[in-house]
Specification:
The protein has 19 helices and 4 strands. It is mainly α.
């Protein structure tokens, strides 16, 4: 028994050393680093590797420390501008907008803006409380103090608890309480010193919505942010986890910049939105597995029926959080993430291929909308890599053929 364990430990130590060698180089070797990450990232190095893959940390080592200081200070400025100063403005007696009822009719008033923000916050608040079902981590206290001056955003949208009592009078006319019930939509009492982890996610999403008024917050964004924050803040206590909130905000922004068209409804009918991406996925399915494509076509099962959620939420709802993280190692390491995401979808279809070819409409739709949870994601990734490699080989061959023709 000792032999295999020692060999496994030795291989792991060698892999960690290889990662650290690449990451500590004066200039990151992107090709080598991507190849290494695509095969899975050691858990203790994943927070830093994801920061690199999502281009939050510069490739040149000498610039990283200054960039971190600058970006983290910038995020703290967002907290001050959008949360702390707003709270002061609406609670201070000296504020210049202390008449919410009189200002409702004025579309340009500060109160009007405040109420519109609360509408966005209500949706965010609902979504973050049901983030990653089955993972209690998000519902636990972070163990860290709130940023100085910050009041929880939940206080802007949660209703106070209401106590209701059933009272009956006895023969003498004296009231007697038969039952007492307390109702509240809050998730535990608010603590002014520490906060729940979902409250941090809520703050990140609110700031993102404030900085992107054209897009705002769209349901599903929380499902993309959740695994990112889990990786950044869920590891060992160190400087990286200490600044998880600031860093994950910029990594989330970077990731969403590549997939934001999926969240813009007005682009659905254009050549840029999620419908266009699903069309490209359908072409890939036809190209790589004609039998499956024909079976789906015969049953009139369109990619919109099952793959809409797959691609818009980057598969975060189809797999457990640990499996999503493992898939994202390969996804983030891809040069073209949208293309690789479609390759992953092909890999998923390959896993349920037999059922799709033999099943009926109801069976197949149910299966594809509730993907098997017992799948080995390594097989999905291996299939996705095979599809990607085949396409790269064909593209290279076609390019060589064109070059030969020109000669």
């Amino acid at each position: 028994v000792g032999g295999p364990l020692l060999m496994a430990a030795s291989r792991r130590a060698a892999r960690l050393a290889e990662f650290e060698e690449v990451m500590e180089a004066e200039v990151l070797d992107w090709d080598r680093f991507r190849r290494m990450c695509s095969n899975g990232i050691p858990e203790e190095l994943r927070p830093v590797c994801w920061r690199l893959l999502l281009h939050y940390l510069p490739a040149k080592k000498k610039f990283r420390e200054d960039e971190l200081k600058k970006q983290r200070a910038l995020y703290r400025g967002f907290i001050r501008d959008f949360i702390i100063d707003t709270h002061k403005a609406v609670t201070s007696p000296e504020a210049d907008f202390v008449d919410p009822l009189g200002a409702v009719a004025c579309a340009d008033s500060k109160w009007d803006e405040y109420f519109k923000e609360n509408e966005v916050l209500e949706q965010i608040n609902k979504d973050v409380k049901r983030l990653c079902p089955g993972v209690a981590w998000f519902l636990q206290k972070s163990g860290k103090p709130r940023p100085e001056g910050v009041v929880g955003l939940r206080s802007r949208v949660e209703r106070e608890s209401l106590d209701t009592e059933v009272i009956q009078r006895d023969r003498s006319g004296q009231p007697k309480i038969l039952s007492r019930k307390s109702s509240s939509d809050s998730c535990g009492p608010e603590d002014t010193t520490t906060e729940y982890r979902w409250e941090i996610v809520e703050r990140i999403l609110f700031i993102y919505a404030k900085l992107n008024p054209g897009l705002g917050y769209v349901q599903g964004m929380s499902d993309v942010l959740g695994p990112l924050f889990y990786v950044f803040a869920g590891g060992k206590e160190d400087d990286w986890s200490e600044h998880a909130e600031e860093d994950v905000f910029f990594c989330f922004t970077s990731l969403l910049s590549e997939f934001r068209d999926n969240f813009i409804k007005t682009l659905d009918t254009s050549g840029l939105g999620i419908v266009a991406l699903l069309r490209r996925l359908w072409v890939k399915i036809q190209r790589h597995d004609r039998e499956v494509a024909d079976a789906l076509d015969k049953m009139q099962i369109k990619p919109q029926f099952f793959a809409f959620r797959w691609v818009s939420l980057l598969l975060s709802q189809e797999f457990s959080v640990p499996d999503t993280i493992q898939i994202w190692d390969s996804l983030f390491a891809a040069e073209d993430r949208a293309e690789y995401l479609m390759c992953l979808c092909i890999g998923m279809l390959g896993h349920v291929r037999d059922t799709v070819l033999e099943g009926d409409f109801a069976t197949c739709v149910k299966l594809l909308q509730n993907f098997p949870s017992d799948v080995d994601v390594n097989l999905i990734i291996a299939r996705a890599n095979a599809v990607r490699d085949q396409e790269l080989h064909e593209a290279k061959h076609n390019e060589m053929f064109k070059t030969t023709d020109k000669r």
